[in-house]
Design brief:
Helices cover 9% and strands 46% of the residues. It is built from 2 helices and 22 strands.
């Protein structure tokens, strides 16, 4: 289980295990992590935790949210990342996250996971607006990502899980969500957005079609349906 270590001026104040799907940070009392300081906005930031992965998002705070000295809007947290809020520090600790980061350099794929649709939408920073009324919808046909360039060229990944995270943490990260009526790609982290069929994507989620070509952190990959 991942946790945050809250400190100020080098003094550890407390440890907070990330047991919730959403952990809010801010000055107001209703936040999960309340920091009563004027440099902190009432609702400053949120951490969305999906299985062993955590995403940090700034909630349009006045003074911004920083990770390892860099201001972020959205950030895929890695082991030992330090979130900076004014004079306060929140160190992110996750042994499993460290192992996944090492595995990423070899495979280009961080880790797929199975989880509820609502959590996926929060992680991607989007609201897809679907409601299935609690009924289980028919699954889409099986699909595959094939790496076309780079040291992992030729490698294939079957998209059998609900969420697959692709990219390089701290540089560019995107998620592919497997939904009842198809597969969608959404930008999560990085100043550069993914490229789909030669066109740079925007902040919205985009549906993937057979033989689409995705470019992420300089690596090209093909999405196709397994027939």
């Amino acid at each position: 289980m991942a946790k945050l270590i809250l400190s100020m001026d080098g003094l550890v104040l407390k440890e907070i295990p990330l047991t919730r799907e959403r952990t809010t940070i801010g000055r107001k009392p209703h936040n999960d992590i309340q920091i009563d300081n004027l440099a902190i906005s009432g609702e400053h930031a949120v951490i969305v935790t999906i299985l062993d992965d955590s995403f940090l998002e700034d909630l349009d705070s006045t003074n911004g949210t920083f990770v390892n000295g860099q201001q972020i809007k959205k950030h895929f947290l890695q082991n030992n990342d330090v979130i900076e809020l004014g004079k306060y520090r929140l160190k992110y600790v996750s042994e499993q996250g460290a192992a996944a980061a090492q595995d990423f350099e070899k495979t280009m794929v961080l880790r797929p996971g199975t989880l509820r649709q609502t959590v996926i939408e929060q992680a991607a920073g989007k609201s897809f607006g679907d409601s299935h009324g609690g009924q289980q919808a028919k699954a889409p046909p099986p699909a595959v990502i094939r790496i076309l360039s780079g040291p992992s060229a030729g490698r294939e990944l079957e998209l059998v899980k609900t969420l697959t995270t692709l990219g390089k943490p701290g540089v560019q990260v995107a998620v592919i969500t497997r939904r009842p009526h198809g597969y969608f790609i959404a930008h999560v982290e990085g100043s550069r957005f993914p490229v789909l069929n030669g066109k740079t994507l925007d902040a919205q989620a985009h549906e993937l079609h057979d033989h689409d070509v995705i470019e992420l952190v300089g690596v090209k990959m093909e999405f196709f349906f397994r027939t």
